C-alpha cells in the first residue's frame, strides 16, 4: 500500500454520522461535563463527572468487561426503585478511586438533589453511579488516586460551565493516566443530530488492554468504515512507529490492567428498558475501535442517559433503532478522538513511557504524516 492511499471502508458498514454543533456530549441539552486531576508530578489520575440537569435523567448501564469496578450500578436495573439520577462518575484510581463519587454525592445533597426519602426538601439520598479504570502507579506514585475531594472538584467544574460548552479532550479527568494498548489514551467525545431532530452523543475514557491501532497499517481501527476513507501513513513512518512502540513495550513489562468507560446520551424520551438497550448496543462502538475488547483484565462499562426532551415517533415502532445505531457510532468516534487528542508520557517519574498516536504519526491533517517532535506531557493540572 502506498503512502497516503485511502483505505476503503467496509461496504457493509453504514456511513458515519455528521458531527452536531460542538461534536460533544454537551450537545445533549442540559448535560454538563467536568474534569479534575490529581496535582503533582507523580500523579497521573483524575475524575470526570457528567452532571444532569435539575430533575435528573433516566439512566441505565451495561457492564461487559471481566474486571469491572463500579458503584450504584444495581440501582439502574429497570426492575429496581430509582427512576432518575443526577450525575455519573468516571474515575481513575481503580477501586480506590470510586471514593470520588462520595464527593459528588455530598455536593448534590447540599443542593437537595437526589431521591427524596423524607418530608423535608433536604432529606434526599443522591444516587451517583460510578465506574473506575486502572491507572495505579502510572505517574510513578502508587498511592496517588482520586478521592472525594477530586470528585467534588470535577462536579464543581461541570456546574460552572455554560450549557453546551465544549468538553476538554485528551489527558484530562479520568483520562489523565489512561493507556490504550501501548499508546496513551484519554477522553474523547462525539455527537450527531439525527434527521428526526434527536441528538445522540457519547463520551469515552479509553484505557484498553486491547489495541486501538491496526499493526498492519498504522490506521486507528475506529477510522475504518467512517464517513471519510481512512488514510494509511507512509510505510517508513509506520515502521518507525512500530519500532518505537516495541522499545516502549520492552522497557515496561507491567500487565495491561485497564478498562474503557463510556457514557452515551440522548435528548429523546426513553424508558429505562430502552435506555438499557442503548447502553448495550453502544458496546458495539467499543468493539469497532478496540481489539480485543471485553477481556478479563478490562472492566468495560457503558452508561446511557436520556433527558426526555424529544419524543420518539409514536407511529414508528422501531424508531429506537436510529438511536441505537447512532450510539454505537458516536462511541467509536469518541474513542478515535480520545486517542488523537492524547499526549505522551515520558516515564521519567518512574510511571512508564506511553507514546501518543500523534508522537508516532503526527496530528490529523499533517501532510507528510510525520511523527511529532517531542513529548507533550500532562504535568499541568486541568480542571
Q: Could you give the distance between the termini?
A: 43 Å
> In terms of structural class, how would the helical and strand content be classed?
alpha+beta
Total E-strand runs: 16
Going across the major beta sheet, what is the strand order? 2-3-6-9-5
- Mean pLDDT equals 88
Tell me, what's the shape? Answer: globular
**Which regions are unreliable across 5 or more consecutive residues at pLDDT < 50?**
1-16, 366-383
Produce a short descriptive summary:
By secondary structure, the protein is an alpha+beta fold. The protein is 22% helix and 19% strand. It has helices at residues 100-110, 148-159, 235-251, 272-289, 320-341, 357-361; strands spanning 6-7, 32-37, 46-51, 58-63, 70-71, 87-91, 115-116, 124-125, 130-132, 179-180, 183-184, 186-193, 199-206, 230-231, 261-268, 301-310.
Please provide a written account of the structure.
It is a single chain. The protein is of the alpha+beta class and 383 residues long. It is built from 6 helices and 16 strands. It has helices spanning 100-110, 148-159, 235-251, 272-289, 320-341, 357-361; strands at residues 6-7, 32-37, 46-51, 58-63, 70-71, 87-91, 115-116, 124-125, 130-132, 179-180, 183-184, 186-193, 199-206, 230-231, 261-268, 301-310. The strands form 5 sheets. The protein has a 5-stranded mixed beta sheet, covered by helices on one side. It has a 5-stranded mixed beta sheet with strand order 4-16-15-13-12. The protein is globular and about 65 Å long. The N and C termini lie far apart (43 Å).
